User: What shape does this take?
Amino acid sequence: MSEYQLQEIPVGPYKHLVSERAISGETMILNMGPQHPSTHGVLRLVLELDGEVIVNCVPEIGYLHTGVEKNMEAKTYLKAEVMTDRLDYMNNMGNNLAYVMAVEKLVGLDVPPRAQALRVILTELQRIASHLVWLGTTALDLAAMSVFLYCFREREIILDIFEMVSGQRMMVTYFRPGGVWRDVPVEFEAAVRDFIKLLPKRIDEYEALLTKNPLWLDRTVGIGKLDAATALQHGVTGPMLRASGINWDLRKVRPYMGYEQYDFNVPVATQGDTYARYIVRVQELRESLKIVEQALNKLPMGPVRSDNRKFVTPPRSEIGTSMEALIHHFKLWTEGFPAPKASIYNAVESPRGELGVYLEGDGGPKPYRIHWRTPSFDNLSVVPQIVKGHLVADLIAILASTDIVLGDIDR
Amino acid sequence: MGVEQKLGNMGVVTTTLETAVNWARTNAMWPMLFGLACCAIEMMSAQAASYDMSRFGMELMRPSPRQSDLMIVAGRVSRKMAPVLRRLYDQMPEPKWVIAMGDCASCGGVFNNYAIVQGVDEVVPVDVYVAGCPPRPEALIHGVLTLSEKVKGEKFKDLTKA
Amino acid sequence: MDNKLEKIVQTLQEKFGATFEEFRGEAHVFVKPEQIVEALTFLRDQHEFALLSAMTAVDYWPQESPRFHVIYQLTSLTQNLSVQLRIPVNGSQLKVPTATGVFAVANWREREIMDMFGIEFEGHPDPRRILLPDDLDGHPLRKDFPLGYEEPQFTFNFEEIDVRKPYVKE
Assistant: This one.
């Protein structure tokens, strides 16, 4: 077909971003993505190459732009929550948490202790699941196929737990403003305990496959060095920042949901290369497991959602017997609740970094403006800085180590 | 039951060319390694240890559209992505099939707004729609088997018409 | 509000004539658009606000002055503090000086605001659209931009919508 002949990428739009050698044709402009197996989604990179060495890299994003922010403004606070799951689809529980915490902060709603502990357990399980996917796909990118199969095997166990509590494997919408959807079933505790017993051995297995593997070391050590000052300049947060030697974890410095009760370490590395980011994430797997175990041991009894009927729907059991509960249920789901005319910014630590929600109310039942400060967006913006001078094959390693999720970037 | 029981001891089998070709097509269908959003993660799950789609001759994901027969549109298609998707489809050699995986690809799903194409059938012709947000890996495998049934019933005269 | 934060807000008030609001322990400091680069540099260098956590805008359409607020959320890692700077932007004068010289992260964030709200950042090194296709007309997060809702197809209206739905040809 004539209209789809091989086209050279015009330098025009990137004139100010590439070197002069590209304009004279000395270096080559190469397009990578949006359909590429190693870009972890629909990311497009325009590379300027001198042989196989990267001179410049221009990320083009927006191929998964979903209009989440605009769409959430058209829904009530309760109904907008379904959008949050689909933003960063590796961190569904974490997105729910960021959103419901923002709503709770805006309207001033308290959460019962049992719901807080459940939120911590499930968010940490989600962090483990996210890191497992990261480890699996990164290893796959760097040609270690078996790690991918093992990581997904363990992830299935977590997804089964999610399905047990919420009825869905991924799009859980389990946390609700003022608590959680409903109490966990009785099998929950045994399932989580089995998982806690199982995973440390499995992490040892992954580490046995990778940590001292000379091929893995060759591909990762010294690749994509990111120093702390550049990281901060580019707003990098999360494991990437901690791998560059800055100890900044919102769970530790600004504890929410009772994280201050749990004893855990924040893994930090100083090298700032791809290997350091791998080490930090693997250690985070173990730390998250520690938090889950402590939270499960301390899991208090009691209600799982606030009984403030102005904001929280009554439990199903009451609706059948109480007229008032039925009215509250009906009003909250059709009309919604009003939030004050004010704005808040609330951030939580997602597996990728600081996940912030800017939420502004206008006195009505719908968010006037909601903005998601997503960690992948900023973490990706530093990639052009750190890939310069590396080979194309190293770009794959660096990109994988940033742990970007395109749903998180493009929103 | 092995093939020898069907063949008897003659070593010969009679069938139509259509049946033989369609049988061959269904048993080595190479999907394109092409994930868009959430559903892509479930597509990966379907290929990983627990679900193992290679039982149906589909383990070989091809990163290049020129080597693949099946496009699984896994996830929401934005207006910016739609031309890229169409181009990938055009690059695939005939015969080719499309599975719209998940609600967003099938009809827009929860995202009814300016940015998302309301159903990928506005961009490429779809053979099988898989419902769910995201569909479970079993649902995707069911979708693939449904497509196999469809391919087995295809007639040569319908293919040449297009 | 935290004592340390209160002091910082006071210095901002003295230095830039800023006004401020407080809500649930958060400080929202209003400065003038032309002061924003200076204010950000001052906070970064004098008070160790090394991280520009978030940057966004809000549209108050149909109100015209100010029509937009551009918001800068700053975090200090050493003092564990956050402060929010807000600048009002009039609908007739959609120009804000760029902060890319102070924080490199502002580059993409400003491109996003440019894309979504149509606010121009003067002196921006790479003023291209970032998330939306180049041929899209308008700025979606403005309040006068429609959501783009399409009627869902159900059993009762299947045929009616089927007629006008733009199905692709082979």
Chain B touches chain A at residues 32-38, 40-42, 44-45, 48-50, 63, 65, 75-76, 78, 80-81, 84, 87-88, 90-91, 110-116, 133-134, 136 (CB under 8 Å). Chain B has seven helices and three strands. Chain B has a mean pLDDT of 84. The beta strands of chain B are 70-74, 97-101, 128-130.
